[in-house]
Amino acid sequence: MNTKNLTYISLAAAILLAGCASHSAPDDAAPETEVAYEPVMAPPPAPPPPQMAAALGRARDMAGGLMIAPEPEFRDQYEDVDPNPVKLTSEEPVSTFSIDVDTAAYANTRRFLKSGVLPPKDAVRIEEMINYFDYTYPQPEAGKDPFATYVTLSPSPYAEGRELMQIGIQGRDIDRDARPPINLTLLVDVSGSMHSDDKLPLAKQALKLMLEQMDPADTISIAVYAGAAGEVLAPTPVSDKRKIVAALEDLRAGGSTAGGEGLRLAYSLAEQGLKDGAVNRVMLLTDGDFNVGITDSEQLEDFISRERDTGIYLSVLGFGRGNYNDALMQKLAQSGNGTAAYVDTLSEARKVLADDLGGNMFPIADDVKIQVEFNPARISEYRLIGYETRMLDREDFNNDKVDAGDIGAGASVTAIYEVTPTGSDGAQIDPLRYGTAPEAAGDASGEYAFVKLRYKPPGEDESILLTHAVTDEDRAASLDKAPEWVRFATAVAGFGEMLRGGENLGAGFGWKEIRNLAAGAKGEDEFGYRAEFIELTRLAETAEAQAALNRPGVDN
To answer: Domain spans of the chain?
Structure first.
């Protein structure tokens, strides 16, 4: 194609965009009051004005019938967070954070890699990538606490002279017959930005999968929001599945996005159907584009924080690309005692809303916090991998009024610290020239660390404390001899580190080492998630090489 033809195509694209802009209503023109929502069929697209059609026709003829659509504008939003720093045990021996069972970052990262590009670094939350996988930790003993804790210390493959301390927490699963009833309010974004196949149409398919896993006595209500919020379906038992499916099928996308008003309505519907002894939950399905009504993230967080005191949980399912507001959705889920997941395929919808429904729907513990005290006589430095948005102050651990993450039935949580043994050449911080901190009182032959966990039974105000002392009994002589769950989680954490630039990895650890480590710990892999991860390491390696070739100054 010659330069002249490209020029005509560019002119035609500019005319098309200008025409579309002139025919679009501004977002702030939409009403902000609540109205009854009446599902309507989406109107056919209006033909372009005659002058635009003529210009497009001429451009098409001159380009030999080829029309090139412009790339959609990339407006995804992610929170800018720096990785956790290395800390000296002698100066700051205690690390405190809230658990995080979200998985959105992994699915979203996969979407980028399958498109042939690296994800933005801020889209990579390593803890959510680790927690995407089931590590088959053994279940807690019957009749005891709802958690079992597993700690393993093993040599780090990332850098010589350092070690990894993995903390695995397994929540007790519950039989289907023992599940409490569900009072679920679906809040579905039907704004214009949800029109594409990977948004509202996929959301409707996902919800149909979920219906198959629910009990007939469970109830569902549906609220929607676009330019305004409206009720589509009053609380309806799942036994009347046809009525629920018909309501979903009638949903159409169009208009601006009054998300804040939709949340108000959804919580109101949930409160109307509030049941004692039931799981009362709002599930928000959106791309996160709130542009009408309450749009300030702090106001939305404050509103949801107040509502969680009623006992209503919030789950957030993200859809789509190009307009995905990940930062807002994370804040909403964290404020609402809920979880955040990203759904990019029907397969992922099945994982989140069918295979993992228990962990995403039925809470077994609220406000779960972890605090680790390292013994400076044995550990000189430490760094928590991930959990940057979940860090807490030391005093928050014993304050039951401080909110933290929640965990569902059968779900697990994994956290990994990179630690440097005292006296190791792997230390990253030089000793002080004019003296050091006071000598530690720890016993070098004793514990490495002391792990504490606090949680509240659902609906309770007072927390319960669990502890685990990390000793030589928790140590693996080599990574090869560590449990399978340690080796695979180490590969996933290394994958996340590489996607964030690999600054905390040694020169001898890269894509090949990640791939080999994961392949050696793949295990049974019933649903193929681990095999898919191994393939993603190849896609990431290719995308990184392509990005390097496309950098300015590189001769292609």
So the answer is: 87-174+364-428+446-549, 176-361
